[in-house]
Amino acid sequence: MTTTAQTTSFSRVTFGGEDLHLLADRAIWWPRTATLIVADLHWGKDAAFRAQGIPLPGGVLDADLQRLRKLSSRLRPQHILILGDLIHARASLTTEVIETVTAWRATEAAACLLVEGNHDRHAPTLPSAWKIERVGPTFSDGALHFVHDPAHAPDAPCLAGHLHPSVNIRRGRRSWRLACFQIGLSLGVLPAFSEFTGAGRLHPLPTQRIFPIMGGFCFEWESLPATVR
Q: How far apart are CA 51 and CA 59, in angstroms?
């Protein structure tokens, strides 16, 4: 089976009648509403692991925030919409994490909204200096709906996270595990924004389209080979 792909830094799709840009930065840009959409940031995951005695280097949060800064600088969003799992665990809210996010928020002009995910229950109250509004487990902005877990998606065009979708692509003896967007008829699933997360598997969606991310590019596979899982 042959496979073709168009390779660009983002892929443009029409979803729920809206023009969306699937960015290689593991985010979605919604031009009409000037909204940057991300999912599964898991801030403080490395700090939580270290609190459990698992030796891990720091810098994960700094790297993720730097990517957010670059996106915001380029796109100038009015809103940043987070589709759940902003915080990884209760132990994630260390002084260092709180101060690092506070410093970022002081320079970020966009309003930040959080659609609550399962990990966010560990932090029922976020630091006020973060200025992140919790909008509950579901959110709607007219044309589109937003949840964290796709299992809770309404019967309407909806974007979600939670699954950390990825594909394993093999060419000869080489293989790559790539984070991807998974776009179906009425449900779209974003990859985890944080690169310090586990890779999930694809869950079949009606007439799904797969957009892997590799080397700073987001591209659609027009036909998936049998070696993609």
A: 15
Task: Please give the angle made by the CA atoms of 62, 25 and 11, to the nearest 5 degrees.
Answer: 175
Q: What is the CATH number of the domain that holds 107?
A: 3.60.21
In a domain, 29, yes or no: yes
Instruction: Give the C-alpha separation, 140 to 159, whole Å.
Output: 10
| Digit-coded pLDDT (tens) for 142-177 | 899 999 999 999 999 999 999 999 988 877 778 788
Domain-located, residue 119: yes
Report the number of distinct structural domains present in the chain. Answer: 1
What tokens appear for 212 in the block? 């892997």
* String of DSSP letters for 111-149: EEEE---GGGGG-SS--GGG-EEE--SEEE-SS-EEESS
Task: Write out pLDDT tens, residues 2-39.
Answer: 333 444 588 999 999 999 999 999 999 999 999 999 99
Does 72 map to a domain? Answer: yes
- Residue 226 included in any domain: no
| Widest CA span in the chain | 54
Q: Look at residues 22, 4, 26 and name the one whose alpha carbon lies nearest to residue 13.
A: 22
DSSP labels, 180-222 = EEEE-SSEEEPPPSSSSS--B-----TT-EEEEEETTEEEEES
What domain range includes position 121? 5-221
Query: How far, rounded to the nearest angstrom, does the alpha carbon of residue 121 sit from its chain's CA centroid?
Result: 18
Helix (H) / strand (E) element for 46: namely helix 45-51
The mean predicted confidence, pLDDT, of the chain is: 86
pTM of the model: 0.88
